[in-house]
Amino acid sequence: MKLITAVIQPHALEAVTDALREAGVAGLTISEVAGYGRQGGHTEVYRGAEYRIDTIPKIKLEILADDADEPGLVEVIVASARSGRIGDGKVWSTDVGRVVRVRTGEEGPGAL
Amino acid sequence: MKLITAVIQPHALEAVTDALREAGVAGLTISEVAGYGRQGGHTEVYRGAEYRIDTIPKIKLEILADDADEPGLVEVIVASARSGRIGDGKVWSTDVGRVVRVRTGEEGPGAL
Amino acid sequence: MKLITAVIQPHALEAVTDALREAGVAGLTISEVAGYGRQGGHTEVYRGAEYRIDTIPKIKLEILADDADEPGLVEVIVASARSGRIGDGKVWSTDVGRVVRVRTGEEGPGAL
Amino acid sequence: MDPFTLDTGATAWLLMSASLVLLMTPALALFYGGMVRARTVLNMMLMSFTAIAVGAIVWTVCGYSIAFGSDIGGIIGDPLSHLGLHGEDAESLLAGSGVPFLVAAGFQMTFAIIGAALISGAIADRVRLRTWVLFVAAWIPLCYAPLAHMVWGGGILSGSADSLAAWMFGTTGSGADAVAAVAPIDFAGGTVVHINAGMAGLVLALVVGPRLGFGTDAMKPHNLPLVMLGAALLWFGWFGFNAGSAGTADATAGLAWVTTTVATAAAALGWALVERIRDRHVTSLGVASGIVAGLVAITPAAAAVSPLGAIALGAVAGAVCALVVPLKHRVGIDDSLDVVGVHLTGGIVGTVLVGLLSVDTGLLYGHGAAQLVVQTVVAIAAIIVSGVVTLAIALVLRATVGWRITPAEERAGIDISRHAEAGYDLVGSLASRRDRRPVRIEPAPAPAPTAADRTPAPTGGDVR
Amino acid sequence: MDPFTLDTGATAWLLMSASLVLLMTPALALFYGGMVRARTVLNMMLMSFTAIAVGAIVWTVCGYSIAFGSDIGGIIGDPLSHLGLHGEDAESLLAGSGVPFLVAAGFQMTFAIIGAALISGAIADRVRLRTWVLFVAAWIPLCYAPLAHMVWGGGILSGSADSLAAWMFGTTGSGADAVAAVAPIDFAGGTVVHINAGMAGLVLALVVGPRLGFGTDAMKPHNLPLVMLGAALLWFGWFGFNAGSAGTADATAGLAWVTTTVATAAAALGWALVERIRDRHVTSLGVASGIVAGLVAITPAAAAVSPLGAIALGAVAGAVCALVVPLKHRVGIDDSLDVVGVHLTGGIVGTVLVGLLSVDTGLLYGHGAAQLVVQTVVAIAAIIVSGVVTLAIALVLRATVGWRITPAEERAGIDISRHAEAGYDLVGSLASRRDRRPVRIEPAPAPAPTAADRTPAPTGGDVR
Amino acid sequence: MDPFTLDTGATAWLLMSASLVLLMTPALALFYGGMVRARTVLNMMLMSFTAIAVGAIVWTVCGYSIAFGSDIGGIIGDPLSHLGLHGEDAESLLAGSGVPFLVAAGFQMTFAIIGAALISGAIADRVRLRTWVLFVAAWIPLCYAPLAHMVWGGGILSGSADSLAAWMFGTTGSGADAVAAVAPIDFAGGTVVHINAGMAGLVLALVVGPRLGFGTDAMKPHNLPLVMLGAALLWFGWFGFNAGSAGTADATAGLAWVTTTVATAAAALGWALVERIRDRHVTSLGVASGIVAGLVAITPAAAAVSPLGAIALGAVAGAVCALVVPLKHRVGIDDSLDVVGVHLTGGIVGTVLVGLLSVDTGLLYGHGAAQLVVQTVVAIAAIIVSGVVTLAIALVLRATVGWRITPAEERAGIDISRHAEAGYDLVGSLASRRDRRPVRIEPAPAPAPTAADRTPAPTGGDVR
Ligand SMILES: Nc1ncnc2c1ncn2[C@@H]1O[C@H](COP(=O)(O)OP(=O)(O)O)[C@@H](O)[C@H]1O
Ligand SMILES: Nc1ncnc2c1ncn2[C@@H]1O[C@H](COP(=O)(O)OP(=O)(O)O)[C@@H](O)[C@H]1O
Ligand SMILES: Nc1ncnc2c1ncn2[C@@H]1O[C@H](COP(=O)(O)OP(=O)(O)O)[C@@H](O)[C@H]1O
């Protein structure tokens, strides 16, 4: 089993989840994160004092997948999340030893 | 070393942390996430326009554990998080190469 | 490739990101998490009813890095995040199979 | 009937006072709304807002008449006397001070509204809005208006010659001018509004039952700045409530303004002091609660006590309410936002302390215990009237439309499950994320099965 | 000119009313601000706040004169008559009720301000603040003040002997005392303020164009308690608007106070009922919207209808507005916060229903259809005036300074991109995290290239 | 003493004005509360709320007497003259306009309260509540009331025959009717309230010292809609402050109403313009700040200038304050919320500009420089009085109870560490999560060791 993690632009979320659903993914977990990278941030000014905000809101997706599905799903995410502008994010995958569905106790691919 | 990750229902949080504490876990890290899965979401209506919200608030737990403790802790989590209803969540574990306690620089099991 | 994960004190964030930037890290992803551990929490009182809050706000950093850079970056994080007080947090690293930059599709070290 | 002479100054003050008291109910919505959890804030606020909507209409149709129409047996006024707020200026409650009929009737309307709205704090987060709306529509004409009649409309709890007070301590004057020798004092509604609403809250909390998780789950306030804003606007509005109850802009109104301010100040400090000693922390919720407790307690007494007397009264009220509020956890009654601990308690404290601190008639000023006895009797009578009538209404509603939403709806949060709304969407980055897509942006008839899904079943089906 | 005799009561009420109506514009800022997304709340509120700032100055310099100066052709007043609000108390609009010149002029100022501010809801989240400021500076003297003159200043939409109404149904009285036999009724500004602002909103929504993502992205309210607070303060302020329009504190003011309250109550219930049937849920946004719809609709009618008539009028207005609001999605016009659906619609409903429900002249009270005809004609005339003048101003501004921010600025959120501010930073733990460091804490001249970066290019460059 | 004749109109306006000015302090709590970080909002608001509580009581007991009792040496009034607000209506400050004693005394009370509350902005996030409470209890009788006496109570900064002004430019009239030929003008408290509070804020900021992290950590506003709401309610309340200071409802009140509105409008634009040029962005915080700066500056001048003069005065004040505010970063004084930059600066600007813009006495109207000199001298005198007295109080408190919370408490956030409360818990899903369990739901005596843990040690122990 694999865990695919993707950090994407917030506005790409719907496109990515739609694409993943079509690719047969039944579930995933979403978090709000802040990204720090090439994209830079913005400036805020309060009563003449400037504040530099280096971080940018991003969305992190975590998808558990069968080893066999992993390469395809990474492609799907990369394709659907891409706008071509700096800050589109990263996708990575790691090995997962064991997956359990809490409701039933099922393990492995059946737990997804 | 292992990293156990659990996505659970928010209302199961206290039961799970209590069970883990009894099982000897001294620490863990909690995040608020949004889950997307079989459970479905809900509808909101503002001035006659309906919005479909597909995601559901969930809690993510991350627990670093000794290799030997991992199977038992996964059982504890699954048992204490289960309500039997759709949406109870997933538990998975991955290998961790190295763990350091920031305060002391200790590594390995002593870092937990 | 490695994924380094660090759970640190919120007030250490700037020191850590500064140190990582100097160490050549071009990007990272930040989340707000709640930590549960030795540090304890605090008490709130509303109309005479006391509430025990066991969790403490922490910051989680995720940094994808070359295998070769990993040991050094862990040192940098531990050094810059340390205050010596309970609750300074943990740093751990895991193996990553594959990393893709969404914008370009680049893989491996070039994706960072 | 004397001819009516307009006094623009008095009328200006009463128009303003009516506006101020009307503002109190939205202020209450903020005060209560901030105290519940984020996922029930809208329902909580809706209870106050619908109390205004329903209360205004009921009062116009018949409430005013029942309270202030021609007396029927000392219990109610004739509902037909002023149907639809019909009346001449010479019939104005405040004709003597030159305030037109509708201004006085509108001013009184706002009291009925806030009285009903206060009750909602006892049953937060768990009741069907339609049942609440029906409750308000019944409670104002059946409980509030009669009690207002008894106390202020010349009924049995007033100072008239046919009143309980006259029966106890005799009358003075003779013939049509006879009045009770020791008249009960409820300057601005300690009995009519606060004891009444507080007792009604207790009854509803018992009939409706506790929230799921009461006593085990944490249910802490989600937005304390909102609570403090609500408390501040309540205070502001209360100047209309108390100083407006002088019926004109004169020295009595000035006294009521000052006593309202200083009693409230003292009550905030009194509550804070109890917290400092008992809990080791002064809290903003405590200070806000003390403010409301002080406002409640000075209400019946505002023109009867001196400024220094008001400080004493307020300090006692703040401290007593702070001590009473946590008792609900001991007895296990989920009076969610402390309608009993603040309004019933504060109302009783203020009403009874008038008997001690009234400059002209109080025990501490050497005028004997008669006023104290009268005040106590009136407070008890109001508790009984309110308790009995509210219980009857609550039980009828339980047996018919039902009070509770389903357990699943309650767990999901009443805002989402019953109102299809969320109070906040504050995370800038995700505020408009696309998975929140409008799936239907034009009116369409409700599909029958889905409607059935969401209708609360008495058997408590799960919405998910 | 009669000598002026001060009436302190009337003056007290008008001072208070002016203050209340001024408060309505910040209340609108909250009402509108809570309805947009979190990342545009500040810009939305700034549109109201700058409307106050600009409106107050424009009104002082020439607006008042254009509205109420010596008549020029029934269309405008002489801009020079009261330049800088110069005038004698005997020239006061309310001299007859003993209210000094500046009190009456200040009271009217607040109407112009709220009228302009209302329009901003139609063009939320996407316009340059400077263009908005210029729009307000032009719209008040060119559109609002002339229409106020026509309706209230003795112009062609008033009841004067030279008016449209007189032309249609003749005059009564003779010589200088002649007036239209059937005078149009706009007690407090249903035509002058609400139809006017609503129509202007429609025009601007068309000229400015829809927000990026309108119709596909979700754009749901970010803070509904703020919306409800805004609605409550609007209601509170509206007592000044309507009861203050009596010009003194008397029975007419009392009637306006009561009808304002009960019509609003009924409208809230009317809107809620439509929601219950159509959407299966009563929402807090619906109740808040119904409140505003009711307030709008009763405005022209406040002193013409009975309390029961006001309930009917409010119920109709609430239901009609609830039905009209979603139509914008069908026609694809991004009237973002429903200025058309609430203010134009509610204004028309109220103005026309006066013709049915006016106790003294209405069709349902057996006085024939003349009033109904006059009301309808005046409403249509106001729509035309407002539409034409606003369109002219809007097109000039589009051709010169331009309305829209760049697409990139709009995507990033107007608060950050144009005002360098974020509405909220609520996460306690990170509220002061060090990566938010003040990089420049003392004034310095703006570096030219960066300034250019942030200046919106008509070609729509991307800010990121 | 002349007999007292009630004027209900004047009294209605003063009752309302007192209510409005009282509302200003909660409004300030919102304005200040929104500007601090989320984890200190409650403490910030509590400083205003406790200023009301303490101020109301101190004023009642002795403050009023010290300000307006029988003169002692031109410096204070006799504290015993009106102990407990005892007094006849004929002794009312506003007896001449028919306003009863307690109404006038209550109106003045609200000025003392807001004056004290304003100071809290200079020492945000870092002081013990008890020290603040003691400070207010001392500052009102020792600093505010004496200065009020000097300026308004016939003391040495008034226009009496024994005043500084009389000493400089002589007197007119003779015997008991003699007054200063050129009387200082402080219509509504530019000197007494704003210069006074601003100077006190400067002193406290110096005595208390900067927040941990001042100058390095970001400390940006956490809730700007709250700030804007606060600014709006301040404006609304200020109508009572300024127009109420006319003492009745007449043309002077009308002038003050209009000048207050237009000066504030101009100041908002003035501040925005400075921002546009200097920072390239107009901000909502800037507009809100400009509003307050304008309100402060027009306060002394409200009835002395024309509407156009008020526009000029406001524009200057807004721009000057915008330029002064960032200077604190240069000099390294943590006047956290710019009490100096807005209240001291705005108060001085307004007080001095009266000397130029007063229609009857100003330099620009050809009346010479005498008024300007008098205004400047009074401003300087007020700065000295306030600085010296506040410094004495502040140092005594530092030496006794101590000002600062411990560094650990400050780092953790004063709300959690000192008040055991969190301002917000907005994440719906977790708002009631079970790890937030009530561990003690009934009163119990405080365990001694824990109490000691939380008591701030002068040595600054770590709370964690
Ligand atoms: N080394 C890294 N480890 C973890 N996350 C990273 C890393 N580099 C970038 N990211 C994440 O990816 C996002 C996009 O990166 P950025 O450098 O801005 O653009 P791009 O990926 O297009 O080159 C960042 O905001 C951050 O969340
Ligand atoms: N493939 C997946 N990868 C990651 N998280 C998942 C995946 N599937 C489900 N989840 C998480 O588990 C939660 C519960 O899943 P769901 O399908 O609703 O119910 P159940 O686990 O009971 O079958 C989801 O809300 C989501 O957070
Ligand atoms: N076993 C664990 N797994 C995951 N996170 C942990 C674990 N133990 C501690 N943490 C995280 O590290 C933080 C600090 O741990 P704590 O025990 O308080 O102090 P320290 O690391 O200094 O011993 C916790 O708040 C939690 O977020």
List the defining traits of the structure above.
heterohexamer; A: 112 residues; alpha+beta; Alpha-Beta Plaits; 4-stranded antiparallel sheet; two-stranded antiparallel sheet; 2 helices; 20% helix; D: 464 residues; mainly alpha; Ammonium transporter fold; two-stranded antiparallel ribbon; 16 helices; 5 strands; globular; binds adenosine-5'-diphosphate; N-reg_PII-like_a/b (chains A, B, C); ATP binding (chains A, B, C)
State the helical fraction of chain A: 10-25%
Spatial order of strands in the largest sheet of chain A: 2-5-1-6
Helix/strand order of chain A, N-terminal first = EHEEEEHEE
Q: How is the biggest beta sheet of chain A arranged?
A: 4 strands, antiparallel
User: How many DSSP-defined strands of chain A?
Assistant: 7
Might you state the CATH topology name of chain A?
Alpha-Beta Plaits
Distance between the termini of chain A: 10 Å
Question: By helix and strand content of chain A, what is the structural category?
Answer: alpha+beta
Tell me the major beta sheet of chain D: 2 strands, antiparallel
CATH architecture of chain D: Orthogonal Bundle
Beta-strand percent range of chain D: under 5%
Number of helices of chain A: 2
Low-confidence stretches of chain D: 428-464
Instruction: Find the CATH topology of chain D.
Output: Ammonium transporter fold
Would you count the extended β strands of chain D for me? Answer: 5
Percentage of residues in strands of chain A: 35-45%
Strand order of the largest sheet of chain D: 1-2
Order of helices and strands of chain D: HHEEHHHEEHHHHHHHHHHEH
Oligomer: heterohexamer
Shape of chain D: globular
Radius of gyration of chain A: 17 Å
Provide a quick synopsis of the model.
Chain A has 112 residues and is an alpha+beta fold. Chain A has two helices and seven strands.
